[in-house]
Specification:
heterotrimer; A mainly alpha (about 500); B mainly alpha (about 525); C mainly alpha (about 100); B: about 525 residues; mainly alpha; two-stranded antiparallel ribbon; globular; C: about 100 residues; Helix Hairpins; about 75% helix
């Protein structure tokens, strides 16, 4: 007995020492539990709820660490700022901000999955387990402070999402999307790892703080530049930045819609975290010689322009949202290129609002599809009559993506452009091009809104009943989009705190 | 002054009205919307009446210090004041002075009138009245905002309900008209926002303080480079000119008007066009008074003074709008083009930079709001009553629809500036200002040419009246009816107001004149001769 | 006795290039998958080489971990290829084009 008590107290002590890793640990255990549980025939419907509860608890933990330290478990009295495994992982405002984004997206997706995953479909346990594991991978990326750990996190998330994309094995589109996603994902992983190996060779370390310290004195600056370029290409694929974007529209169109939402809203942000961390911290000291800001600036211009222009011609809503996602990624790349603390905060805030808007929009598409409405813009005609609530949510989400008040997208874009201008220099042009793109993008969002409200519904079209879980997820996302407008001050304050805590990583050796 | 945040209350009540109109059962939507509109109107009436309540506009204080804001409210929004990395400085700032108050009053009055006129709208009434009230939120916000950011947000908010009003309730070519309206005005507001951002960052560079307040930026504007200011002025002017609209940025307007439902046209002509003129006066003129009197050179070409360029654009709008009117067959299009002509007069009045000219321009904005609203309504009634707006197909209407005919006559007379009706005084004061600034015939912008425009205006109205009302009646085999009761009440009420403000223009001039003279003295224009 | 570092890195670079060439030119999904594996191997060789020549044992451990990761990736990838083959009867990516690639 005393052995057990000893073990428990040791475990307890170990947990208290690693309190910041609790969300990841929890989700991993739940994912592993889901697999045996899925064998229990009578528990099929409970699997989703089980995963949802787990994500809820994890979100609450992150919230606890971030916002209400005074309610803490007694192990810490301030906002969490801890490093683990000799500095390989750091849980601070930065990682908590992104963990919150990832968990909220996972929550919304999991909620909507309750109706996307039909009662009779096989492999439900695997679906939710993979969803949780993908989330764990993203959380690892959020708190990793080490290139190799970053790579491991990205791989955990990627491999899980490959399988999720192919989850409907009988669906030819789903497996086609999966094979494209997998091959491109494998290529990007190879580029990334090869890049990391060169950075490791040039600086003798994979830990970001040590890279930053060693980089200016390296005897092989060309190895460092090569590593940086390879990593930019690797992140570019993950991020769907032009010219590495070709896979994204196909994958988003073919994957189960909940997974499209997860990829566009969640896993894309993973590349944002990773890129910001690696370049602002790791390469922060060699910005003058590696010119990564210029590269990201060019990528930003290409990405937003190509994304927005190609989106103009789309007739399929999922493809349109995919290209809009590429365009939006371009705005975030502006923040990566500018890389002042304020600009990073703006990029973070846009990551948050974009996760809500794009996640909400994809889930809305999925919910309507579940209610029998098609994927073409023409299929949405008359939606204003057939489902006024969802039509209103769609309007707000699309206006948010276009950056029209009163939505959070308005402020996050404003922050990005304003901080780019405030940084001066050639960043001004990024803001101007961004602004013009933003005006352009309104056209294709307005096209959908117009279809929703104007055209009379086709003869015989009945009222649309979006399943409750989907509707709930969409409504939550829409409320989030409104809240990020009215409480932009609070949100941007948190984002700046996160951005500042990123910069403290430099000092960690 | 008073503890009641009356301006915010106006905005909140309008928004609440919009929500209520959307949510109540279909057949009550109109009544609920009207109730809220009347409530907002009564509140704004209290605001305007001297000494009615503690939160009435203080005319004496306004005379003493014309551009001093009254009923101001300011709350930090996106701002971390007091912290070392202070940024954004976005505040919710609203307030009125003698220049914005007439516009606030006009907005509440015309929104109420438009809702009452359209109270029996059969197609999707909830959304219809909801959008009308959302638009009221937007325009009231634009007319009361004292912070660039808040101004821009409300400016954008106006766009959306108008797009839907044209796009859903519009005529046969509504898709095209709606998207054209949307793209034109959105591109304009993007250019405007580039100008605003440039201003904010220049202010930041000069003072080291983030601020979007009109007052703060106007205070640091004198230190800015004159060429920079010219560029920003051009960007802002473009934003406002598309909205007004000024020829050659006007082509969205006839399409939008022709396709829009009557209530939408009324609000578009009566209020939305005023946003552009008001923005010019409030932002461009007060922030950059010196730009107006500067002669820029552009790639070696010496341009005339900026104000003369504006005056020239105003004259072009007046003449072009009037001539195009002569050629119109569609009665509604005729009135749309006459709006371009009359807004040209507003621009011309402002460009004189004399106290009396600006004051006349403000009165012209108010009068045109009433008159164009009445005209669009009566054209809507003719369309309902006879099934067409095509001038050649109408004729002899005076015999069959005497009341409609009478209203059309009075409204047209008001529009062409008949003494005793509202726009006579405003045209007279604008031309007085024009004479002071540019003389009678000595320059391309002196008043002889715009006065020609007034003559053409008289010609096209009288010609149109003759074709529509008199002559043999064209039998078209359709049931015809005179004005229904609600339209009768609204139109007669508007005519009474048009006559009232024609006889006693001081009701508006008392508010606007001190501010106008103050703006004129900022610019360094003539301030003598009035009052 | 010592193999020069440049030779080892050169081997890695050659493997990486071969793999990259394969990814770009092959249309058989399994061939592409193998090419990706070759690229990953190049990275592993780099890790081992850098670790060995700078006396840092971490480099070899990175290589080991990445081999494990690659195995996981291949397992999932082959499973996806099987589902595609079942639904399409081919794993030629130039013929898997219902979506517009």
């Amino acid at each position: 007995m005393s052995d057990l008590a000893d073990l428990l107290s040791q475990l307890n002590a170990s947990l208290s020492d690693h309190i910041g890793l609790l969300p990841m640990l929890l989700l991993t255990i739940l994912a592993l539990l889901l697999l045996p549980l899925s064998q229990v025939r009578s528990f099929q419907r409970g699997l989703g709820v089980f995963a949802l509860l787990g994500l809820g608890v994890a979100t609450a933990l992150v919230y606890e660490m971030f916002a209400f330290p005074h309610l803490g478990f007694g192990t810490f009295e301030r906002r969490l700022d801890e490093s683990y495994f000799g500095g390989a992982m750091v849980v601070n405002a930065w990682s908590l901000f992104f963990s919150a984004i990832f968990l909220v997206v996972a929550l919304l997706v999991c909620l909507a999955s309750l109706s996307e995953v039909k009662r009779h479909e096989p492999h439900q346990g695997e679906y939710y387990a993979l969803l949780l594991l993908a989330t764990v991978g993203m959380l690892v990326v959020a708190s990793a402070n080490d290139l190799f750990l970053l790579f491991i996190g990205i791989e955990i998330a990627s491999v899980s999402t490959f399988a999720l994309t192919a989850w409907r094995k009988k669906d030819a589109l789903s497996s086609e999307a999966a094979i494209k996603f997998f091959l491109i994902g494998g290529l990007s992983a190879a580029l990334l790892l090869y890049g990391i190996s060169w950075v490791y060779g040039a600086t003798g370390s994979v830990q970001l703080g040590q890279i930053a310290a060693a980089a200016p004195h390296t005897t092989h600056p060309e190895a460092l530049t090569l590593g940086a370029l390879l990593m930019i290409a690797g992140f570019g694929f993950k991020f769907a930045a032009v010219p590495f974007h070709g896979w994204a529209p196909d994958v988003y169109t073919g994957a189960p819609t909940t997974i499209s939402a997860f990829l566009a809203a969640g896993s894309k942000k993973m590349a944002v975290v990773a890129a910001l961390k690696v370049f602002v911290i790791g390469f922060g000291t060699v910005a003058a010689t590696v010119h990564w800001q210029l590269i990201f600036g060019v990528l930003a211009i290409l990405t937003m322009t190509v994304g927005n222009v190609v989106a103009l011609w789309q007739t399929d809503i999922k493809r349109m949202l995919a290209y809009s996602s590429i365009g939006q990624a371009g705005y975030i790349l502006i923040a990566v290129a500018v890389a002042t603390p304020d600009a990073i905060a703006a990029g973070l805030y846009h990551s948050l609002t974009h996760a809500l808007m794009k996640g909400g929009a994809f889930l809305l598409v999925g919910g309507l599809a579940a209610a029998g409405v098609g994927y073409k813009i023409a299929d949405w005609e008359g939606l204003g009559r057939r489902s006024p609530g969802m039509a209103l949510a769609a309007t707000l989400l699309l206006l948010g993506l276009a950056g029209i008040p009163p939505t959070g997208g308005f402020f996050s874009k404003f922050f990005i452009f304003a901080t780019a201008v405030a940084a001066g220099d050639w960043f001004l042009w990024l803001a101007v091009i961004g602004l013009l793109n933003s005006a352009l993008s309104l056209y294709y969002y307005a096209k959908v809104i117009r279809a929703i409200y104007k055209r009379p519904a086709k003869a015989g079209a009945k009222h649309v009943h979006v399943p409750l879980p989907y509707a709930a997820a969409v409504i939550l996302a829409t409320i989030g989009v409104l809240a990020t407008f009215f409480f932009a001050n609070l949100g941007f304050g948190l984002a700046s705190e996160a951005a500042e805590s990123l910069l403290t990583l430099t000092s960690l050796r | 002054m008073a503890d009641i945040p009356i301006l915010t209350l106006l905005l909140v009540l309008s928004a609440a009205g919009a929500a209520a109109a959307l949510l109540v059962p279909k057949r009550y939507a109109g009544a609920v919307a009207l109730a809220f509109a009347v409530l907002v109107f009564l509140l704004s009436l209290l605001l305007v009446l001297p000494h009615a309540t503690t939160f009435s506009f203080d005319y004496a204080a306004s005379s003493a210090d014309p551009l001093h804001l009254q009923l101001g409210e300011a709350h930090p929004w996106i701002d971390n004041a007091g912290q070392p990395d202070h940024r954004f400085g976005i505040w919710y700032r609203v307030g009125v002075d003698g220049l914005s108050l007439p516009m606030v009053f006009l907005s509440t009055l015309m929104t109420m009138a438009a809702i009452a006129y359209a109270i029996h709208e059969p197609k999707r009434p909830n959304e219809f009245f909801g959008l009308l009230l959302v638009m009221q939120v937007g325009v009231l916000g634009v007319f009361t905002a004292q912070d660039y950011f808040v101004f821009y947000i409300f400016w954008e908010i106006v766009l959306i309900p108008m797009y839907f009003l044209i796009g859903i309730w519009g005529g046969p070519r509504r898709d095209y008209a709606a998207i054209k309206f949307f793209i034109y005005t959105h591109v304009a507001s993007v250019i405007m926002v580039i100008g605003i951002m440039a201003l904010v960052f220049e202010n930041l560079r000069l003072t080291g303080v983030w601020s979007f307040a009109f007052a703060d930026i106007a205070a640091s504007a004198p230190q800015m480079d004159l060429v920079f200011k010219g560029g920003v002025f051009a960007a802002l002017f473009f934003g406002f000119a598309v909205k007004m609209p000024v020829v050659p940025f006007h082509t969205w307007l006839p399409d939008a008007h022709v396709e829009a439902p009557t209530a939408g046209s009324v609000l578009l002509a009566a209020i939305l066009l005023k946003m552009g003129a008001y923005g010019l006066l409030r932002i461009a003129f007060q922030t950059f008074p010196d730009v107006l009197r500067t002669s820029y050179s552009w790639y070696g070409i010496d341009l005339p003074e900026t104000r003369q360029i504006l005056a020239f654009l105003g004259v072009v709008s007046i003449i072009y709008g009037a001539f195009i009117c002569l050629a119109q067959r569609d009665l509604k299009k005729l009135i749309a083009y006459s709006s371009i002509s009359h807004m040209g007069l507003v621009l011309y009045g402002m460009s004189t930079t004399t106290g009396i000219g600006i004051s006349g321009a403000v009165l012209q904005m108010f009068a045109h709001g009433l008159i164009s609203g009445a005209l669009f309504m009566v054209v809507g009634s003719i369309h309902h009553g006879t099934g067409t707006r095509d001038i050649p197909k109408l004729g002899g209407l005076a015999q069959r629809l005497p009341l409609t005919a009478a209203v059309l006559v009075v409204a047209s007379m008001a529009s062409l500036g008949l003494p005793g009706l509202a726009s006579f005084v405003s045209e007279l004061t604008v031309f007085t200002g024009g004479y002071q600034a540019y003389g009678l015939v000595i320059s391309p912008v002196s008043i002889a040419i715009p006065i020609m425009g007034v003559l053409i205006t008289a010609a096209y109205y009288i010609w149109a009246l003759q074709r529509v009302l008199f002559g043999p009646f064209v039998e078209r085999g359709l049931p015809m009816h005179d004005l229904p009761r609600n339209e009768k009440v609204v139109l007669l009420g508007l005519l009474v107001l048009i006559a009232f403000f024609g006889i006693w223009p001081a009701a508006i001039l008392d508010m606007s004149t001190p501010g106008s003279f103050e703006v004129a003295s900022l610019i360094g224009g003539l301030t003598a001769g009035g009052r | 006795m010592a193999v020069p570092q440049a030779a080892v890195l050169g081997l890695g670079a050659i493997l990486f290039s071969l793999g990259f060439y394969g990814v770009l030119t092959r249309t058989n999904a399994i061939a592409i998958l193998m090419s990706v594996e070759v690229m990953l191997t190049a990275a592993n060789i780099n890790f081992v080489a850098f670790g060995q020549y700078s006396g840092d044992p971490a480099g070899q451990s990175y290589a080991l971990i990445s081999i494990a990761l690659a195995a996981a990736e291949v397992a999932v990838g082959l499973a996806i290829l099987i589902t595609v083959f079942k639904s399409r009867g081919t794993i030629d990516v130039s013929r898997i084009n219902v979506l517009r690639w």
